[in-house]
Every structure is written in C-alpha cells, then in structure tokens.
Amino acid sequence: MFDNIIKNITRFISLTPEEEKTFTDLLVCRTFPKKSVLLKEGEICQFEGYIHKGCLRMYCLDDNGTEVTLLFAIEDWWISDISSFQEQKPARVYIETLEDSEIYMLNPTTKEKLLREIPKFERVFRMLVQRNLFTLQNRLVNTISKSASDRYLEFIKVYPSISQRVAQYYIASYLGVSKEFVSTIRKRLASREK
C-alpha cells in the first residue's frame, strides 16, 4: 500500500523498517471524488499530501474573479499551500481534485512528530521545497521570456500526461492564454504529425 511513497522518500534518504513504519503510521489516507475542493482561499492549510492516485490543481482568483491555475499535481507528487501550512496563516489559493484522488496526508502535528522522531526527514522536505521552487522559477522565466506557443510546447514536453488528463481551459489558464489558442495549437501540432 505504501510502496510508492516509500520509493518517493528513499530518493532522498534511507529508512530502516522501523522508520518506515513510524512514517506510514503517521499518514492518513484519504480519498476524494473529482471536483473536491481540499483548500479554499482564506482557510488555513492543514495538510501536506502525497498523491497516490489522481490529479489536482492549485489556483487563485484574479481581480475579476477568474481562476488562474498555478500548478498541476499528479501521482508521486506532493501538494500543499506551503506558506499557509508552515505559518498557519490563511491560504491565498485553492486546491481541487480534477480526478478521483487518493492522497496520503500529514497534518502540522503529525509532521512535527515525524521530524522529531526521524530528524533526517528534514532533508526530504527541504528537497521537496527546493524542487518546488525550481519548478516555479522555471515557470516564471518561461512566462516572461517565451511566446505562448513555446510555453505550450514546453508544457507538453515537461508534463505530457497532464495535457491528456485535464481540460483545455485549465491548461489555458495555466499558460495565460485562451482555450481557443490551446485548441488551435493542438490542431496545428496534430496536423504536423500526420
């Protein structure tokens, strides 16, 4: 049941069988149907979650109330509002499932207990934060420096499975383009492949 999350963790640290058990005993496995909102703007994030199954997105609302997708997360990825979780301050984002999802969750109390009992988990969470920062920095640079077409091509190169799993308007929201643009570029790419 926990093989995938243990593989995810052991990319960064090695665990004894006792440490694996301590870790997995602290996890809560929750299932959510598609379109479940796990976090709303203004709430305090009470989870860091490892996605065992499913697809989620994090988004915010702009001044016009339009949803702007900030990131997607699929199997073997972690998701949380890190700022809200760590500081226990109101979130500025929403997190929602785009598919039926199964997530292993830690809350602030269980995470602190984990870090107290197995201090080397600090490295795991540091590495996850660094990867998240790298991804966000890369996205910001691409948004500023690349054309919409190039951003789409980069998106499907980096996240090929996501582009097949989520609606075009979510991808458009992520890229900052219209859904018609995404449709047009998909058609153009499909015609090149024939």
From TrEMBL:
Coiled coil: none
The Cyclic nucleotide-binding domain, residue ranges: 30-115
A Pfam family matched in the record: cNMP_binding
InterPro entries: cNMP-bd_dom, cNMP-bd_dom_sf, RmlC-like_jellyroll
Protein name from the UniProt record: Crp/Fnr family transcriptional regulator
